[in-house]
Every structure is written in structure tokens, then in C-alpha cells.
Amino acid sequence: MRSIPLVVTAGLALVAAAACSGGGDLPPADEMMPDAAAAMREVETVRFDLAVDGDVPGLEIKAADGAVTADGSAQGTGILMAFGMDIEAEYVIIGEDAWVKGPTGGFQQIPVGDDMLPYDPTLLLDPDSGVATLLESVDSAEPEDTENLDGVDTYRYAVEFDPAAFATLIPAEGDWHKATVWFDQETARVVKAEFSQGDATVTLLLSDYDEPVQIDAP
Questions:
Q1: Residue 55 CB: number of other CB atoms within 10 A?
Q2: Stated pTM of the model
Q3: Which of 17, 24, 40, 110 is deepest in the core (most CB within 10 A)?
């Protein structure tokens, strides 16, 4: 039986390792986290998709999506939990004013923070409580792998952060302090963040950065 040269065997091993790792080295966390926080502070508009899996006390929604602007406006849809039912609603937020439309009837004006609007997505780009602030509160982070998400090349990190910073971003009760976060390799912006506690998971997707958005009162 013919033997395989050692150099060929080693080469095959290297190819296999590269395939498993996703290829390429990830930036060290002490560089990636500040770069990502700085990049998120420059964002003017973004589209978000939020999904809640499991019981998350304090967060009375199952899903929400829409567009957000850095000047404090947002519009989109959400699935709220009220009276033991899931209710689909549309919302518009402009500054301190909000409008919500349920399955029937027209838009009703309410203050931001009303029970009819249990989640305020404008917090995502808020300079004091947004995604950038959460990244600045990271206690530790470990690079994991590279991954392509819907055509975007990303770096994936396991992150631990100050739970108080998470509570200002997403009003979930409990000690939420762990997440897996995917960053765009080119821009350092967040593409996906998956927060977990026990059997519950909150997944945030961010896309369409700085695309033109016009939000008007209904």
C-alpha cells in the first residue's frame, strides 16, 4: 500500500481546520467592542426585527419590527400580549408622542411608555441607553468564529455585559448579562444579537443601516 506523504497529510488537516473555523482570525475583543460601539454611535437610521422566544417577564411582546431614526422616531408593527391574547398592532413614534393601531379601528394617540406600547424601539439608537451604550458596558468578550448571515460576512463573539445596561435597552426583568453578537466585518456594526437567560431568548436583527426613512404622524 502506498503511503501518503506527511506534507500532504498536514496540508489536508490545515484545509479541514480552516473549513471548520470559517476562515481568518477574528479581531481581539478589546479592539472589536470599542470599534463596534463607535460605529453604532454614528448610525442615523436602521431597520430592526425583534423576536422573543419563551417567557420574558417585563417584556409584554412576542415580536416587533420597523425602522428607527437617531432623532427619536420609529414606525412598524408588533405582536403584543394582552388579556391572554396575541394582538397585532401598528405603531408610530415621534419624540414623546406615539400612535397605535390595533386589529380594528384607526390610530390612537398615546404617550410613549403607555401599556399599549410596551416596547420603545427608539431606544436602540438612543445615545444614553442604546446598542452603543450596551457595547460600552461589556465586561468580557470572546471571539468565536466568522459567519455569513444573509450575505453579510460577520465576526461572532460571546459577550457578557452589565445587566443594568440591557434593562435600559430592552425592559426585561432578571439578570440578563450574556449574549452572542455578530458584527459586520467591514463596518463593525451589529448585524445580530441573541440574548439568553434560562430557557428564554431575545433575538435582535439590525439591517438597512442609514437608508432614507421618513416617519410622519398618522
A1: 9
A2: 0.87
A3: 40
Q: Point out which residues pair with 108 in neighbouring strands.
A: 100
pLDDT in tens, 141-185: 999 999 999 999 999 999 999 999 999 999 888 889 999 999 999
Tens of pLDDT, residue by residue over 86-106, are: 999 999 999 999 999 998 899
Q: What are the tens digits of pLDDT across the range 135-151?
A: 999 999 999 999 999 99
List, as one string, the DSSP characters of 165-195: HHHHHS---S---EEEEEEETTT--EEEEEE
Domain 28-73+120-207 classification at class level: mainly beta
Task: Locate 108 and state its grid cell.
Answer: 390612537
If one counts every other C-beta atom within 10 angstroms of the C-beta of residue 191, the result is: 23
The DSSP 8-state label assigned to residue 28 in this structure reads: P
| CA dist., res. 72 & res. 44, Å (int) | 10
Distance of CA 22 to the CA centre of its chain: 22
**Cβ-based neighbours of 110, under 8 Å, separated by 6 or more:** 98, 99, 100, 116, 117
C-alpha grid cell, residue 93 = 413614534
User: Rounded CA gap, 98 and 168, in Å?
Assistant: 19
